[in-house]
């Protein structure tokens, strides 16, 4: 941190319009005198110093050496969009650069790479450096791999979670809308179509509970709750707007991305995603840090279990459940974990518009509504309602069902939509479609969540809200040869072609004999305890 | 690998003058129709397809989204220098892009991240993908961390080494200069000033052995053998030139960087370096793959041991030695490992010019020459000479000494320098200097190799050939308060100031009582067996 600036080598800051995602990149011309004198090389890490009205500012950045005057000249210091925003000064401002000392926590990172156990202070130092963008992508990847699988013990996961909370913003509902429990639900993800939040939130709010829900947009899935909700209403709400909405309706369904609740986690996810790493310790710290930062006091957590879900066996699910319970317990978050059937998608629609249609059908008590989505939402809402001290154990489900069937949940949802801002130009289902058909007669004995998600993404979801697919058959359903299994919807011809090509290689649906169908949590199968 | 191109969305290739080191980066404008239609995001991995005279070409690249028309327009596909060179077509050429399937070996990478053992074919697939630049920096970092420490067993290290050899070029001396052993020496590094190669090579060549030595430039050290040799002669020789020189003088001292001997290793090093990871398995595979690719049949390997050397204890040194021996044995490379004293720098000079002066003093049998450098070079040369079947075990040292003292080594070195091209404009020692002094009376009881190296680098080495430092005191030497410990040399005022600031914070030399000096390989110390 204490690198010495080069006092005589002041450079003029230039914003370079390149989105390097979460990494600060500095672009210096090969002929820049500082590069030559100080012996910087490509991928060197540099520390950039400047000052604005508030005082001195500095960031760390990775160096890319440039040979093109149109990008930066020899007396300029180019900054990627991320770096420019973080430094917080205007173009043309003077800055100096120096060789960066490694971030202070690098010694702790090396201890973890070498398989050692880290203490509370070491994890806090790493997370502070991560949140301040002092780690390069390479260092972030090293941290993510070194803490992969069960390489963090439960104390370390607790300390990681605390560290993530400490560097983020914390929403204070008590100060804004009064004391009392703030209930929340979360699913660890991986199941397409699983839009229970949009049902659970209006139900528990109708019961009188505070449920200010923030959700994510899709990262690798065809739709996140925020994407699906956005079909119906505005979801980009600042905290002040959320407070107003929650005061009026006890609930909201907002995108959490602007809330800066766990900035270190957002940065770590930017490397976990391309590596497809989602280890138990990282998952627990990520989810619980965001929930606690969002001010939740009570949480129902859904862990779907299935051969193509994130959690593939009951052994794994139980282990993950204990880890969540241990960390939540120490952070005084009331947690109820529900293990659910993750063998196939939930509901029929996959993709923002198609999922929103499922949700509205359930709220409208349409007999054609997908029953699996309805049942699962009622089960989860029931567990949340049982956080109410006045509700007896076991009564939550019936209360939730009454709220849904009486139309109070629909009324509550409409109130939330109106408060957030009802979407006037509601997108519609993509006009182009293609039906994927069964190759043979039999029963559906497996549906691959990952494959289905990929087909829906190639069709354009979630960027194209009306794209995705509609599941026409479910596990155990009999099919004839040539009968449609699902219908792909797209808006663009190229997207439809992509999705169709993938589905024709492997639809993700397996046809076989009914006795080959793995039973939920059956022993001897993948689900065995 | 089988991603589908977007046939209708052909883009015009543009070379973007940004050096992203070893990573392929594609720059696409945010308004590019392909980005919008296919939903690419920053850091997505894309596959780029085109064709040239030789047929179809494709590369994988990481995507940076650009908002500046001066860098790329909406109908262009910008490529970083590395990506442009790899694709091998001209600017304006048409290309299509598609979502990249992960490289075929990613499943194996995940198995390794999860702590599993990889087979020969899996390691070969990973190294092929690495050499073809199909891995992003994040994936490279994941591989490096997952194979860190002793997480590769010795079979895996052997297979990694074989895989690295298989993807590189191999030098064929037998076909060029006749059969017979090709001897080499290598030091695992980390000891400043340790320029024994420039003495060992002329000595063994004078004995009649073939010793075509390729060396590296400094990466994190103040000078590599190639940097120091370059003070005296041209070191950038193609293979054809090396063959001519070796035919004439039986030896050369060339830079190995252009030889493409282990391209996968060169790429892995680009992430190992910023992570400061240098694990046993990676070290063995890196060194042995390059030696075998360079055509060596016999190798003396120097492993310095000391508290600030790469290897810090005899236990660690012995373990590393066995691993080198195991892999070399299976690859039919005759290997003799020498464990040496790595408690302090070797010689007096640190930095290209200062080290070259030490080397020439030893060759000239100058009584003022640094005796530690002379002794170590003779010891290593002796071990190499004993590869000669006609030399009795134990006689090598005396033969080496005779060659040095008779002036034959100097004559041989002059012949090598003349053959490579004697440098006419030999650089001189930096004119600016500063003496770092002992704070108190006592004896020098520790010299920190890493600290000394950093001071020399800040002074400008190796980019400024005359920069570095001259050690005036060595372990065990008595000093008075205020007596100079070393003298920093620099060419630029700012560099001198940098180096001086660092040295004044901590010189790297510890003064104490003589009985506190750790003895080489003494038991009970860091060196205990």
TrEMBL record, chains A, B:
GO terms for molecular function: 1,4-alpha-oligoglucan phosphorylase activity; thymidine phosphorylase activity. Residues 443-510 form the Pyrimidine nucleoside phosphorylase C-terminal domain. One of its GO terms (cellular component) is cytosol. It is an enzyme of class 2 (transferase). It catalyses: thymidine + phosphate = 2-deoxy-alpha-D-ribose 1-phosphate + thymine. It comes from the Bacteria. The keyword RNA-binding does not apply. Its EC number is 2.4.2.4. Belongs to the thymidine/pyrimidine-nucleoside phosphorylase family. Type 2 subfamily. This is Putative thymidine phosphorylase.
């Amino acid at each position: 941190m204490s690198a010495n600036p080069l006092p005589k080598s002041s450079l003029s800051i230039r914003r370079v319009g390149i989105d390097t995602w979460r990494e600060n990149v500095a672009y210096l011309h090969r002929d820049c005198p500082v590069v030559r004198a100080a012996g910087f090389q490509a991928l060197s890490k540099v520390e950039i110093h400047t000052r604005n009205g508030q005082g001195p500012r500095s960031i760390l950045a990775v160096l890319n050496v440039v040979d093109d005057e149109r990008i930066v000249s020899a007396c300029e210091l180019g900054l990627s969009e991320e770096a420019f925003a973080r430094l917080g000064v205007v173009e043309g401002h003077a800055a100096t650069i120096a060789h960066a000392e490694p971030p202070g926590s690098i010694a702790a990172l090396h201890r973890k790479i070498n398989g050692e156990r880290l203490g509370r202070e070491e994890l806090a130092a790493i997370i502070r450096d991560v949140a301040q963008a002092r780690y390069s992508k390479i260092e972030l990847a090293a941290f993510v791999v070194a803490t992969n699988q069960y390489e963090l013990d439960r104390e370390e996961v607790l300390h990681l979670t605390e560290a993530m909370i400490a560097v983020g913003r914390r929403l204070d509902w008590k100060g804004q809308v009064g004391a009392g429990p703030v209930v929340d639900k979360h699913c660890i993800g991986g199941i397409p179509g699983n839009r229970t939040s949009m049902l659970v939130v209006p139900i528990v709010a109708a019961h009188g509970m505070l449920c200010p829900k923030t959700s994510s947009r899709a990262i690798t899935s065809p739709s996140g709750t925020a994407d699906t909700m956005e079909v119906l209403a505005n979801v980009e709400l600042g905290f002040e707007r959320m407070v107003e909405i929650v005061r009026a309706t006890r609930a909201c369904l907002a995108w959490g991305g602007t809330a800066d609740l766990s900035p270190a986690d957002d940065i770590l996810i930017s490397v976990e995603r391309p590596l497809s790493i989602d280890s138990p310790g990282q998952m627990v710290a990520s989810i619980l840090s965001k929930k606690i930062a969002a001010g939740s006091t009570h949480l129902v957590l859904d862990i779907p279990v299935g051969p193509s879900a994130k959690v593939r066996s009951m052994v794994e699910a139980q282990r993950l459940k204990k880890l969540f319970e241990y960390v939540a317990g120490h952070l005084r978050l009331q947690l109820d974990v529900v293990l659910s059937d993750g063998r196939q998608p939930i509901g029929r629609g996959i993709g923002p518009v198609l999922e929103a249609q499922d949700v509205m059908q359930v709220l409208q008590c349409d007999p054609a509504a997908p029953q699996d989505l309805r049942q699962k939402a009622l089960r989860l809402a029931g567990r949340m309602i049982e956080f109410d001290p006045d509700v007896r154990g076991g009564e939550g489900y019936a209360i939730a069902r009454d709220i849904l069937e009486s139309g109070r949940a629909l009324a509550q949802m409409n109130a939330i939509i109106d408060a957030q801002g009802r979407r006037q130009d509601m997108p519609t289902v993509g006009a182009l479609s293609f039906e994927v058909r069964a190759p043979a007669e039999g029963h559906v004995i497996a549906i691959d969540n990952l494959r289905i998600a990929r087909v829906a993404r190639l069709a354009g979801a979630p960027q194209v809200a009306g794209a995705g697919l509609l599941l026409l058959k479910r596990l155990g359903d009999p099919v004839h040869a040539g009968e449609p299994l699902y219908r792909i919807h797209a808006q663009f011809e190229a997207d439809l072609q992509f999705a169709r090509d993938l589905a024709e290689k492997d639809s993700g649906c397996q046809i076989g004999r009914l006795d080959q169908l793995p039973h939920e949590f059956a022993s001897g199968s993948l689900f065995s305890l």
